[in-house]
Amino acid sequence: MFKSLRIAKFRGIKEGEVPDLRQVSLFVGPNNSGKSTILDALLLANSVYSHNDPLGRSSLQILAERHNLPPYEITKPWRALWYAYEPSNEIKIGVVLTHGVEVAYRMEVDKRGLLELNTPPQGRLVVAAEGFGEAPPGQSFSAIDRSRGHGSAGSTGLPPLERLSYDIVLTYLRDLVLVDSEFRRNTKVEQLLWPQLISNRRDKLLTQMLRDVYGMDVENLTYTPSMKGNELVILLPKYSVRVDDLGDGARYFVRMLMVLSLLKDTTLLLEEPETAHHCRAQADITRWIVRSAKERNLQVLATTHSLETVDHFLAACTDSSVEFGLHHTELKDGVLTCRSVDRSDARVLMDMGVDPRCAP
């Protein structure tokens, strides 16, 4: 799992560090304080693996959707990704994972947008992501076998320590998934994920989640033909209802749970999970998120503007004995500061009536 994150010259962040990440980490702070950029930084690092999310989107495509960017062209780099819109700067993203594995990425225009993967202390692996160009002539190149998700370094292969580092990185970075506003509006979620759900009967878990959160007497779910194609339908004792006929909050919840039920041993990025939900539903949804994190070995990194969401995550993590971190972000003159407290200290603050979203 991720333990800390360093960011330099990326979007609005000139430099900064996010320490003490936990299995469930919740980011709070004012608007334009770097919360979303933290998620974006992990997406950019993920793009080195050219791995699509469950909806078939690459990380670069997601970044383009989130920030209204044109399709990426190697000769026209996205200036919006660089701090102060200056591509002559070098974007640096560093993550420290479990067991002390440290991985550093950098992106610079003078190498045609090359992303470099460093694995200290044994040296550097250079990985060129699809869409970012090839390794410069004369420079060593370690490519990713995208079909299996393994690295290679010519005929000699990777040293044991680098292989260990690489495998740990792949576990939590390659397969990470972001659930944000663009995801919530994606009408193809059910169509794309249903075959995966039904193949290993994860639809049973989705049925139980709907019963618990919304109190619906759900018997089953099915995919039926309609004038618009196939649609996901919830089967109740006396009638059925299309997921598309549910309210915005329920539709979003169904889509998020479909993704959640498929993830294992990876990272889930959540942007404002409270959107379109009543506080009572929020509490139940949060319990399911935390329960899934514990049972399926997920790390959850989420942003929020809601005090109720902070309280719900804190309560759910306490009840499930899951490590929780509350991180208050602030961005001033490009410098990101992030103050973190653990589960017990966060509870003391809440009990004292201190609003952690407005920390001085």
Give an overview of the whole structure.
With 360 residues, the protein is an alpha/beta fold. Among the domains are: 40-177, no CATH class; 181-265, no CATH class. Helices cover 32% and strands 26% of the residues. The chain contains ten helices and 17 strands. The strands form three sheets. A twelve-stranded mixed β-sheet has the order 7-6-5-4-1-2-17-16-3-15-14-10, sandwiched between helices. A three-stranded antiparallel β-sheet has the order 11-12-13. Strands 8-9 form a two-stranded antiparallel ribbon. Strand 11 (220-226) and strand 12 form a beta hairpin. It is globular, with a radius of gyration of 21 Å. It starts with a strand and ends in a 9-residue tail after the last helix.
CA-CA gap between termini: 29 Å
Stretches where pLDDT is under 50 for at least 5 consecutive residues are 110-162
Average pLDDT over all residues: 78
DSSP strand tally: 17
SS-based class: alpha/beta
Strand content: 25-35%
Strands in their spatial order, largest beta sheet: 7-6-5-4-1-2-17-16-3-15-14-10
Percentage of helical residues? 25-40%
Q: How many helices?
A: 10
* Anisotropy-based shape: globular
| Largest β sheet strand count, sense and barrel closure | 12 strands, mixed
The quaternary structure here is single chain
Q: Notable features of this structure?
A:
360 residues; alpha/beta; twelve-stranded mixed sheet; three-stranded antiparallel sheet; 10 helices; 17 strands; 32% helix; globular
Question: What is the topology?
Answer:
Elements (H helix, E strand, L loop, with lengths): L1 E9 L2 E6 L5 E5 L6 H12 L12 H8 L24 E7 L4 E7 L5 E5 L5 E3 L17 E2 L4 E2 L8 H15 L2 E3 L1 H4 L4 H11 L3 H12 L5 E7 L2 E7 L4 E3 L5 H15 L4 E5 L7 H17 L3 E5 L3 H14 L3 E9 L2 E8 H9 L9
Parallel strand pairs: 2-17, 3-15, 3-16, 10-14, 14-15
Antiparallel strand pairs: 1-2, 1-4, 4-5, 5-6, 6-7, 8-9, 11-12, 12-13, 16-17
